[in-house]
Amino acid sequence: KINSWNETTWVSPSNIALIKYWGKHGEQLPNNPSLSLTLKNSVTKTQLRYRKLEKPVSDSEDLKVAYWFDGKRNEAFERKVIIYLGRLHTEMPYLQNYELEFRSANTFPHSTGIASSASSMSAIALCLVDMEQQLGLRKPPTQDVFRRASFLARLGSGSACRSVYGGWVTWGEDGLLPESSDRYASPLEQTVPEQWQNLRDAILIVNSDRKKVSSSAGHGLMSNHPFAEGRYRQARKHLNCMMLALQNSDEKTFIEVVENEALTLHSLLMTSSEDGLLLQPDSINIINAVRAFREKTGLMVCFTLDAGPNVHLLYLEEDKETVQQFIQEELLSFCENNQWIDDQVGEGPYKV
Ligand code: PMV
Fold first, then answer.
1. pTM value?
2. What positions does the domain Mvd1 C-terminal occupy (predicted)?
3. Which residue of 15, 22, 171 sits with most ligand 1 atoms within 8 Å of its CB, as the best mutation to test the pocket?
4. CATH: 3.20.20.70, 3.30.70.890, 3.40.50.300, 3.30.1490.480. Which one for 194-344?
């Protein structure tokens, strides 16, 4: 008899770090705590279909996995997923008994250069946790399902562990929150005043080429970086300042910390390798225009950056109209094909 297929489908968002994770050790453990916003519109939807094999495979390299992206088999990503699932062997030894088919698609517009590792890895991890629930292979209490998904997502891509929760999320032992851990992320939602809960993020696409430095190479370069220890100390200090700024609605400190974190990440990148100079003239043009607009209007707008040339512009819901007009009039000319993504803080992943 042929075993029948079961399935589970999850939609999981991307996230943008305000306090950056850059530098790791051991099994994808962060060298400093980070803080991020989970987005709403930039998501990956992944379906996992699985069925029991007649005969289990004997090695994790031989796992039976197919990964489809946008309706096409994607062998490059499939190899990554097989390596990832191999790494989960002690956690999920029973994966060797199953045939797994993933079908995945992103909502981000094509060729924007927006990294999808956080959304795709968190979606895979959520599907896997749901699969083990459906099969009764592990029965954690309900609140632990997300913690386990976060733990598993981390082993795929560090920042992915933060996408498992909505809103504001921390990852890494920080000495502030009792539940903080290097092994999984924790949501901050109750402690963030309303004003900050609905932040908006305009992602300005300066260049859609794939970045030259992979994030794993980038993290690796931190281990010999002369500023590494100072950086890890600074990140902890920034996290402290940021938590206070959020509590006290201290916009000035918020802006200072967010922009300093973005520029620190790029300073480290640029001084790590020739390929680390990722900012482009139009990234700088946007930064200057944002600072001038803030000076002129007094509005709470600031920028952050990922490991690439695109600029994330953060602003408050109440200023949406004014800021979006500014984007249209003054920033789109710096964007490739006038492209930008209108995003905001979201509620986190959900099952469909
Ligand atoms: O999760 P990774 O290994 O792709 O690293 C992501 C690092 C940054 O995006 C640059 C910062 C962060 O905290 O997300």
1. 0.96
2. 203-332
3. 22
4. 3.30.70.890
